[in-house]
């Protein structure tokens, strides 16, 4: 019966760590767990942050050595006021992460030509929202996922003359960013965001940044470099994405060609006690706990690597990161509800009343400024051009006509009401 089950599930069958006994795996977990605790201790020694940040940062740094095993890997973003230690934070991340490099700026060509296999730590990243950096921003918006390709033509000399050949790059790599003014909202949606504040801890603020000479930093980095080589392909090989999708389809009673996870709980006791079924039951257990957090969409994509790393280290760390992830996701949703420009516009339209009358873009823009609390016109993003593009992007225009004084529109108030209800329900459910 077990052999039949293995054959059915062959496309996503568990691949064990090669040539490693259970004792060897337990030893590896212990070593990585000790690195996790050491990283937390180092950040607590040098950086004054919220308690949950230490756990997130420690798992993220371990993940820089394993990120090729995941289909997505989140960016880490530190939003910090002056004097809050953001450069110190970045330097410590650089010292501990895989092949860390500290930069004060980033160009598009550097990202796709030179970033592979490195952890980029970018300080003073205020200019990312500028018009000049649009190409870089678009690239960053996509390359937190594996498989994003950049192609460029390169001139090559041959015996018959010169010709152009295609060079292909994959810029998927861990990136940690920091600035004072915050992140553009689309890019921020790809980040695990931390807010750093000025510290009142005199011991921390008087410490020198001796990371390059620290014995502890060097030992932790060497342990990660040596031992995570044995684990670098583990997460991609065990097929967590296929298993998770199987689990979700089962939850929604969607029929697939494979057995469902429900069948595992109905197996006989001898089959349940087999190593293969034990592994599958473990996946079922952790998937149930992830499901119960109600985290979904991109937030789930970003947190899944940290969940899997935490689970590999220990059940206690896994339980802790579930709680932290749920809280940070709720905080992120609340922030989006308050700050998202699109949501604010949808909310404004939903309260207009359904009168089906044409209104000029200029009048509409002025009314929205008042709704947004910008009656003096200080918010330069609230202009007729942005309003026009946003209404088109959100499909909220029922009709439009061009008049001598400019464009007039009828907005779809009913659709706005439905959209704002959906968003508020998402916040509530999270």
Structure characterization notes:
Helix 3 crosses helix 14 and helix 16 packs across helix 19. The protein folds into three domains: 107 residues, no CATH class; 209 residues, 3-Layer(aba) Sandwich (Rossmann fold); 90 residues, Arc Repressor Mutant, subunit A. Helix 5 links the parallel strand 2 and strand 3. The strands form three sheets. Strands 2-3-6-1-7 form a five-stranded parallel β-sheet, with helices on one face. A three-stranded antiparallel β-sheet has the order 8-10-9. The two termini are 40 Å apart. With 430 residues, the protein is of the alpha/beta class. Helices cover 52% and strands 13% of the residues. The protein contains 19 helices and ten strands.
Q: What is the number of E strands?
A: 10
Question: CATH H level of the largest domain: which superfamily?
Answer: P-loop containing nucleotide triphosphate hydrolases
Task: Estimate the global geometry from the Cα principal axes.
Answer: globular
Number of individual domains: 3
CATH class of the largest domain: Alpha Beta
**Can you name the CATH architecture of the largest domain?**
3-Layer(aba) Sandwich
Q: What strand order characterises the main sheet?
A: 2-3-6-1-7
Radius of gyration: 25 Å
Brief synopsis:
The chain is an alpha/beta fold and 430 residues long.
Task: Supply database-style keywords.
alpha/beta, 3 domains, about 425 residues, single chain, three-stranded antiparallel sheet, five-stranded parallel sheet, Arc Repressor Mutant, subunit A, Rossmann fold
């Amino acid at each position: 019966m077990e052999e039949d089950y293995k054959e059915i599930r062959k496309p996503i069958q568990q691949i064990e760590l090669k040539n490693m006994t259970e004792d060897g795996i337990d030893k590896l977990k212990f070593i990585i767990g000790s690195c996790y605790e050491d990283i937390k201790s180092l950040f607590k020694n040098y950086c004054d942050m919220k308690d949950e940040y230490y756990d997130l940062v420690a798992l993220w740094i371990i993940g820089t050595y394993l990120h090729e095993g995941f289909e997505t890997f989140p960016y880490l973003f530190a939003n910090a006021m002056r004097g809050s230690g953001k450069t110190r934070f970045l330097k410590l991340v650089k010292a501990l992460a895989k092949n860390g490099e500290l930069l004060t700026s980033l160009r598009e060509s550097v990202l796709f030509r030179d970033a592979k296999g490195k952890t980029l730590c970018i300080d003073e990243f205020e200019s990312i929202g500028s018009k000049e950096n649009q190409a870089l921003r678009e690239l960053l918006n996509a390359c937190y996922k594996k498989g994003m390709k950049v192609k460029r033509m390169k001139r090559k000399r041959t015996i018959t003359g010169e010709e152009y050949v295609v060079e292909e790059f994959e810029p998927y790599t861990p990136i940690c960013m920091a600035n004072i003014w915050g992140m553009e909202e689309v890019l921020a949606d790809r980040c695990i965001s931390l807010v750093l504040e000025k510290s009142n801890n005199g011991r921390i603020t008087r410490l020198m940044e001796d990371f390059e000479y620290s014995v502890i930093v060097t030992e932790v980095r060497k342990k990660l470099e040596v031992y995570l080589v044995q684990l670098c392909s583990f997460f991609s090989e065990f097929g967590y994405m296929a298993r998770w999708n199987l689990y979700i389809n089962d939850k929604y009673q969607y029929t697939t060609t494979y057995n469902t996870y429900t069948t595992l709980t109905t197996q006989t006791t001898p089959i349940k006690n087999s190593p293969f079924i034990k592994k599958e039951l473990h996946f079922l257990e952790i998937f149930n706990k992830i499901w119960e957090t109600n985290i979904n969409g991109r937030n789930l994509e970003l947190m899944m690597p940290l969940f899997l790393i935490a689970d590999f280290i220990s059940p206690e760390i896994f339980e802790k990161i579930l709680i932290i992830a749920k809280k940070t996701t709720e905080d992120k949703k609340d922030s989006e509800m308050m700050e998202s420009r699109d949501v604010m516009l949808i909310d404004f339209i939903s309260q207009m009343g359904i009168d089906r009358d044409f209104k000029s873009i200029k009048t509409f823009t002025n009314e929205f400024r008042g709704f947004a609390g910008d009656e003096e016109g200080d918010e330069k993003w609230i202009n007729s051009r942005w309003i026009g593009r946003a209404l088109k992007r959100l499909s909220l225009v029922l009709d439009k006509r061009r008049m001598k004084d400019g464009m007039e529109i009828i907005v779809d108030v009913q659709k706005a009401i439905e959209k704002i209800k959906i968003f508020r329900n998402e916040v509530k459910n999270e």
